[in-house]
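// run 5 | inverse folding | seed 20
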């Protein structure tokens, strides 16, 4: 009888285990958040009003500034979460919110883009972010841009010869402190015989005041916003990066530089009357590192490797 009791207990425990496993397999999660426009929509008329207000004084300028830089209405986009097993797409709401429901646990790639014809380039697109959905639901903020940043360059040795087979990695930095602001993860590329590489998909720095601050000698670093630099690292057999070479690339491109310079000029005008130290005036500093760019592509970020 004791043997039958043990067997019955074992069967019961197994049944409970299978039931628990089935519940875990059918348990679903959500990814929710808000989509916003990642670029400023300031008209030429607003720029001229700002410039006029800057000549008047700080109070007038601040009032016009708040109106010009007020958040734009979020675009209606398609938000997609996908992995090797499934894909889920929803349209965002007029207020920018979205909810992806009935997702199994796992790691998803989440992105947003405006709807377009098959094969056509969307008007706005977000970077693709890895999002882990296991113990809890996930909250993910997304920004969409006309274009994402590509970083191009060449890996060469100390004699200027291209290095084939080098592994180039671009890491977004700094990492935001809140999990609601995602990071794209590392972007990698292996060089061919010409030593060239292209790292795609970084979010651009678009804020005119933030670019102005950088041109004035400040930093783009922030722990409460999307990453603003890409750190470039290269690995190759028997070689290493030269220690004196800059590897943090500001994600500022030609598309947004004019607005930053225009804003900086207004800041200089505002402070000109009260500035006493000529060496501390606001203006674009000569030693600010700003790689060449064309459109949304940062170019000629070459990496020199030396013998290990």
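// decoded
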């Amino acid at each position: 009888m004791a043997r039958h009791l043990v067997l019955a207990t074992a069967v019961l425990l197994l049944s409970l285990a299978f039931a628990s496993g089935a519940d875990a397999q059918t348990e679903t999660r959500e990814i929710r958040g808000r989509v916003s426009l990642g670029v400023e929509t300031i008209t030429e008329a607003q720029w001229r009003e700002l410039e006029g207000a800057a000549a008047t004084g700080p109070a007038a300028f601040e009032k016009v500034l708040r109106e010009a830089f007020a958040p734009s209405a979020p675009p209606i986009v398609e938000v997609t979460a996908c992995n090797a097993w499934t894909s889920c797409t929803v349209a965002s709401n007029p207020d920018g919110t979205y909810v992806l429901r009935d997702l199994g646990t796992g790691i998803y790639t989440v992105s947003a883009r405006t709807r377009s014809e098959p094969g056509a380039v969307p008007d706005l697109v977000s970077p693709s972010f890895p999002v882990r959905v296991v113990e809890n639901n996930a909250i993910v903020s997304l920004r969409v841009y006309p274009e994402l940043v590509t970083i191009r360059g060449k890996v060469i040795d100390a004699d200027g010869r291209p290095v084939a087979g080098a592994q180039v990695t671009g890491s977004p930095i700094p990492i935001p402190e809140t999990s609601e602001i995602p990071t794209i993860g590392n972007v990698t590329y292996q060089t061919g015989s010409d030593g060239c590489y292209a790292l795609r998909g970084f979010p651009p720095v678009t804020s005119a005041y933030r670019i102005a601050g950088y041109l004035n000698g400040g930093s783009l670093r922030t722990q409460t916003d999307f990453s603003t630099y890409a750190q470039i690292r290269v690995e190759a057999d028997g070689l290493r990066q030269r220690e004196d070479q800059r590897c943090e690339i500001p994600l500022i491109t030609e598309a947004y530089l004019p607005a930053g310079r225009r804003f900086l000029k207004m800041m200089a005008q505002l402070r000109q009357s009260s500035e006493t130290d000529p060496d501390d005036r606001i203006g674009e500093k000569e030693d600010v590192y700003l790689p060449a760019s064309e459109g949304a592509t940062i170019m000629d970020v070459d990496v020199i490797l030396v013998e290990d």
